[in-house]
Design a protein that fits this description.
The structure is a homodimer of 382-residue chains. The first copy, chain A, is built from 16 helices and 9 strands. With 382 residues, chain A is an alpha/beta fold. Chain A has a 7-stranded mixed sheet with strand order 3-4-9-8-5-6-7, with helices on both faces.
Chain lengths: 382, 382
């Protein structure tokens, strides 16, 4: 991707071909260096999440000190969220999958925020009934990834507001309109809910410290586009008496139609595999997916294909090749021309159907404990 | 007051000598005409609150249709609020006193909103502990005025947020930043809590209709300076499916030091009689109060005094002369020179001390039911 391409990345807009190194420089974040990956692997008992090993998470803020603290006996907690505007697709799982892995390896608590208020404010076409319903549906999908019911807590904004609001009041006084305007690019026509919202998105980063009355570090895995939200969080953390949350940032997963970032609204529904897609839809979408293949089979056998631009390879990379050995083999066979796109898609579809089948069962189990994970009470009145 | 004096009236600033007729024209509200007072008197069984009879409430929006509805068997509810920044003074009681009178005469429900979040956002010098504590102290004082425990409900923002938030989410999407900027005069440095706040102040006007699933009209007695808040409420009411609230507006009560409006912060504490002032403070403040008297006793006996500019007369007028007969006599004797300022102040002090003595006992009784009046649950999840 040429460095001169213009691109826009805010929490409400991702446009153009993203130059991820340049974006990291613009945002002022750190690259995840090999030594940091080694440290994570060592602390995780010798394993590394594919999302880290394959560079999908590529940027961070203050991850080093967080890991040092953990090694010295100071556990952290995880925080990630979802704006429920519709069904989840596989790319939405990237941050939750890293959280699940970290929870399993580090034994730490997880806080999920479901922002049904924010999505109502951000999307004029959505009703409150819709964002509330999708909030619950999305929550089942998230918990079904394998979170530990004993260590997983949910802030469902409209239902958890009594728990969140005391801290949100304090956070909101520290954030000016000009800050949010600069960070999010708000217009005069922006509604006052959206203007306020970042105060609520900030709360989970401080909530466990507030609740337990001691300083507990926070780690937020998120798409790089969400960094601006949490920059505000980091700006006000110390003034509120809490540690700055650490962040790890992922690249945006490319869409099946070959766009640089994943847009999935309206006619772009073919751009992603939704968790509620019927099997035939999954087949159709994968068969139509943009690849890095050549014009003819002969040419591809001779010259090989280009995995880096392929949306199917991106699916193997982010989720469907569980081991580095398998992922390496797929990549090498693609590049050499040994693996043709049709066969690659068939193999992927096997994995996708298997995942969705197991996921449906896990989702039913998640429904049995989702309600009990929703936090509804504040630990302190003020 | 000359019409050319510049004055500023917003919910966050009252400055200059207010021309109340001009203000009413600027705000586009209706004068309370004698026929409207006659209608209220008739519906109230032949009596009229001194606050209405003496023109302290002088302006309204849609009061006529509200009364017509009541006469036709369609009861309304009352809504008023308090931003708890410190102790209440007697002028704060003006809107609650009218509510109490209307509740007693019309038998209607009353909703009190205590905005401990908003005051924290509006006053950087106040801590959350302070606004929460003053919220409760102020609430006791308000309920002690004689509200009916069976018909009086309290939204204490930080504690009632679960009840308020579902409607606030809907209201906030209908209010743009440019609207609140225009109405309240916000700056880029305004915090995002204050930007959001009017959404929460709007909720009680719709809450009973939402809760009961039928259209219930709302009447809001408030200082004319609070009209802009409720103009926004009225603007979004019909789009949300609720009736526009009717309003009655009072003049600002002049301070004891003779200012046009009552400022009571910092060194201006002598400008008002606080409900928690010790008796000696009350004596001192009234003795030092600005009057419409003459330079010498002789001159006053000969020329009479000017009640309209007198802060002591304003106290008689707003609260301490219960009957029109007594109020008329005090006014006439002041004007004729028969009543000297010292004697007038002594008579007023008797009344003030008597009121505060009875109020202290009523306040203790109010404490026994205040907690149970606080609404903490939403009637519907969405």
């Amino acid at each position: 991707m040429p460095e001169t391409d213009p691109f826009v990345v805010t929490p409400y807009e991702v446009k153009g071909r993203i130059d991820y190194d340049r974006l990291r420089e613009l945002f002022g974040t750190q690259a995840i260096a090999p030594e940091l990956l080694d440290r994570i692997r060592a602390l995780a008992g010798g394993e590394l999440s594919p999302l880290l090993a394959r560079g999908i998470y590529y940027s961070h803020r203050d991850l080093g000190p967080l890991l040092e603290g953990f090694a010295a006996g100071r556990p952290f907690f995880l925080y990630s969220g979802r704006g429920p505007s519709g069904p989840l697709h596989t790319s939405h799982l990237v941050s939750f999958e890293l959280c699940r892995w970290l929870q399993a390896k580090f034994g730490v608590p997880m806080y999920v925020q479901i922002t049904d208020d924010e999505k109502f404010w951000a999307r004029s076409g959505l009703s409150r009934e819709e964002t509330a319903r999708w909030g619950l549906e999305n929550l089942y999908d998230i918990l079904a990834l394998g979170f530990d019911p004993k260590r997983t807590h949910v802030f469902f904004d409209s239902r958890s507001i009594a728990a969140l609001y005391p801290l949100a009041i304090r956070a909101a006084r520290r954030i000016t309109y000009s800050s949010v305007k600069a960070v999010f690019g708000f217009e005069p026509s922006t509604n006052i809910g959206l203007v306020f919202y970042t105060a609520l998105q900030t709360v989970p980063a401080f909530w466990p410290s507030w609740s337990e009355g001691r300083s507990i570090p926070c780690l937020i895995p998120c798409g790089i586009d969400q960094d601006p939200h949490f920059r505000l969080t980091r700006d006000i953390a110390e003034g509120m008496g809490y540690p700055k949350p650490a962040l790890v940032h992922s690249r945006m997963v490319p869409g099946l139609l070959g766009e640089a970032a994943m847009s999935t609204t309206g006619s772009a529904r073919d751009n992603a595999l939704f968790l509620n897609d019927p099997p035939k839809e999954i087949d159709r979408k994968v068969r139509n997916a943009f690849t890095g293949g050549r014009a003819t089979v002969e040419e591809q056998r001779r010259l090989g294909a280009t995995p880096e631009i392929c949306s199917v390879w991106a699916l193997w990379r982010s989720r469907f090749a569980p081991t580095e050995e398998e992922f390496g083999r797929i990549t090498a066979d693609c590049r050499s021309g040994a693996l043709l796109c049709g066969d690659c898609k068939s193999a992927l579809l096997e994995r996708v159907h298997g995942f969705l089948w197991r996921h449906a069962a896990a989702r039913e189990r998640a429904k049995t404990w989702a309600e009990s994970a929703i936090v509804t009470e504040a630990p302190h009145p003020v």
